[in-house]
Design goal:
Elements (H helix, E strand, L loop, with lengths): L26 E5 L6 E5 L5 E5 L14 E5 L1 H15 L7 H11 L9 H17 L16 H9 L17 E2 L9 E2 L1 E5 L5 H18 L9 E6 L2 H6 L11 H4 L8 H4 L3 E6 L10 E2 L2 E2 L10 H14 L4 E6 L24 H19 L11 E8 L19 E5 L1 H6 L19 H4 L1 H7 L16 H27 L19 H4 L5 H7 L11
Parallel strand pairs: 7-13, 7-14, 8-9, 8-12, 12-13
Antiparallel strand pairs: 1-2, 3-4, 5-6, 10-11
Helix pairs in contact: 1-3, 2-3, 3-5, 13-14
Length: 537
């Protein structure tokens, strides 16, 4: 935001942390859009998102004023109902659910859970256990911000009554396949800032399902099988802590499951895989090898589901699916000619579109492979967890538009104001000490200055890693200098002073760029790392 001189301050406030990480936010910073002056505003910030407009400003501030904010109305409406449900001590929920929610909210826990973690889980449970099955009467409430009729409209892909904005975009709780003849996928999305503990949230949801099912094993209301889908092998290994049999499982490590319920966790099954497994298997493949004499024909949903889940999980359908980094799973709005990501000349767009297509298509197959018949869903609950649940450029949807099934939101600014994540810094101009516009959108600035000779051969038009590093080096050195200065300050701290060290994280477009400037040992350590992708921050 611009200050009175038309320029932007590097840090809008001296101490941005306002709230406890363990309680609902009761304050937030609000900035004057003309002056950039901050003020503390009572209450919680409404959920919303930023989108691009054609508005332009002066040369100095143009980069900072081309986005506008809009509310995410479904999140704000559901939030009201969940807050009231929480105050009622979760009236209408099962006894197991009440025990778990009370256990997670306890202030006496050795490792307290963040409010944002609890709220994300409360929201999913409230919708999955109370509202979607049509059990609103159990709450004893008469009125709802999201009515029963709204819920039914959301499940049919129709505009809900509370959403009055006259556009073609409205919230929904289904993600229908292009094939209208199959069951649509029900999805619920949680936006959580990176570093706010999405893996713990997944552990909480799994324990809610398994503990309830363990007490009532003959009921299919709660799944006893969970498929966790993630973007790459590195994340898959990190998420093994979600398997109850893992020696370092989070259910014990974070005291997610009370002692009396822990034996029930062993009755459920958790499979962690990456989306690549959803790629169609060759008709000539058998036992991991390809044979010319083998011709099994194309996979049916049933053979696909058995290959992905194995007989054990397949026989437990319907299952719960947790999409880690769920922003990778989307469907294109159209197949127009413009598939390029803005500012990238198409780089990576084909890869990301293919990943999204395979991921969403694989979930469709699982959802339509329940052995109980074509009208029985194979996925009872599908939850996305992501810091950036937005459509990307080239998807056919407006860039930056949130997924319409988003029901919970605790973004980066909220996490900063609650002291959960580090406070980001920007490289500044040497003369004024203010943010440098060219560093604000560093990647786009670098691409705009590249010459034809700066690109690698091929249609993807990927820039040469060494060229990228040359243009980014100034920003990196400046941030590294700030990191070193802060680190030395912390090292000199005496007892009673702050001892929290700074962290510098550099996110690169791909591992080739990431390895530039590293020692040989460091380069070996990056081998096998997967493409991180671009995320809208």
């Amino acid at each position: 935001m611009a200050d009175k001189t038309g320029q932007l301050p590097i840090q809008p406030v001296e101490r941005p942390i306002l709230c406890s990480p363990y309680e609902m936010p009761d304050l937030h910073w609000l900035y004057d859009t003309k002056t950039g002056e901050p003020r503390k505003n009572p209450g919680r910030r409404d959920a919303g998102y930023w989108y691009k407009t054609d508005k332009v400003g002066g040369a100095q501030t143009k980069l900072f004023v081309e986005e506008e904010r809009d509310d995410i109305e479904l999140v704000n409406a559901v939030r009201k109902d969940v807050n009231r449900w929480r105050e009622s001590k979760y009236r209408g929920a099962s006894n197991v659910t009440k025990d778990l929610l009370s256990h997670w909210a306890s202030a006496d826990r050795p490792r307290r859970l963040f409010f944002c973690q609890r709220e994300a889980v409360e929201t999913i449970i409230y919708l999955a256990e109370i509202r979607i099955p049509g059990r609103s009467s159990r709450t004893l409430f008469q009125d709802f911000a999201v009515t029963d009729k709204d819920i039914q409209q959301l499940l049919k892909g129709e505009r809900p009554g509370f959403y009055q904005t006259a556009t073609d975009y409205f919230p929904t709780l289904i993600d229908p396949s292009p094939d209208a003849s199959i069951l649509p996928l029900q999805r619920l999305g949680c936006k959580m800032a990176t570093g706010s503990g999405k893996t713990v949230v997944m552990a909480m949801l799994i324990s809610w399902a398994f503990c309830n099912r363990g007490v009532n094993p003959s009921s299919t209301e709660f799944p006893n099988a969970v498929l966790v889908v993630c973007p790459n092998l590195t994340v898959r290994e990190r998420l093994q802590v979600l398997r109850p049999e893992d020696a370092k499982n989070y259910y014990i490590e974070f005291d997610i499951v009370p002692t009396k319920y822990r034996p029930l966790m062993q009755k459920g099954r958790v499979l962690v895989t990456n989306w690549h497994l959803f790629n169609p298997q060759s008709e000539h493949e058998e036992g991991g090898k390809t044979y010319a004499v083998v011709n099994k024909g194309p996979e049916t949903p049933e053979t696909f589901a058995k290959r992905i889940l194995g007989d054990d999980l397949y026989d437990r359908m319907p299952i719960m699916v947790l999409n880690d980094e769920g922003h990778h799973c989307w469907r294109p709005l159209s197949n127009g000619d413009d598939d390029a990501l803005p500012g990238t000349n198409g780089e990576g767009s084909e890869e990301e579109a293919e990943e999204a297509k395979v991921w969403a298509g694989g979930l469709d197959k699982l959802n339509n492979s329940n052995p109980d018949g074509p009208k029985a869903r194979g996925i009872s609950l599908c939850v996305d967890l992501s810091a950036t649940p937005f459509y990307i450029g080239g998807s056919g949807h407006p860039e930056g538009r949130p997924f319409p099934w988003l029901v919970s939101d605790f973004g980066l600014v909220d996490a900063i104001e609650s002291g959960i994540v580090k406070i980001p810094r920007m490289p500044v101009m040497d003369v004024t000490g203010l943010p440098d516009p060219k560093y604000f959108k560093l990647w786009e600035t670098i691409r705009a200055g590249l010459q034809p000779a700066d690109f690698l051969p091929g249609k993807a038009r990927r820039p040469k890693p060494a060229v990228v590093y040359k243009y980014a080096e100034g920003a990196l050195q400046q941030l590294a200098g700030q990191w070193k200065e802060r680190f030395e300050y912390v090292e000199r701290a005496t007892p009673g002073q702050e001892h929290v060290p700074p962290v510098m994280i550099v996110v690169c477009d791909n591992t080739d760029i990431a390895r530039i400037g590293l020692s040989e040992d460091q380069r070996r350590n990056t081998d096998g790392a997967s493409h991180a992708g671009r995320h809208r921050g």
